[in-house]
Amino acid sequence: TNTKIPAGGPYAIVTQNLGPEFGGSIGILFYLGTTIAVTMEALGGIETLISTFDLYTEVVDSGCTPSNSTSCVTLDPWFPWDRQILSIISVLLLGCIVRIGMKFVAKTSLPILFVVVVSLTLSIGSAFAFFAGAWTVDGIQRGSPKDNLFPDYENDIETGAPTSFLSLISLFFPAVTGILGGSNRSGVLKDPAKAIPYGTLWAILTTTCMYLLV
Question: What is the rounded (10 degree) CA torsion for 197, 28, 94, 83?
Answer without folding.
Answer: -120
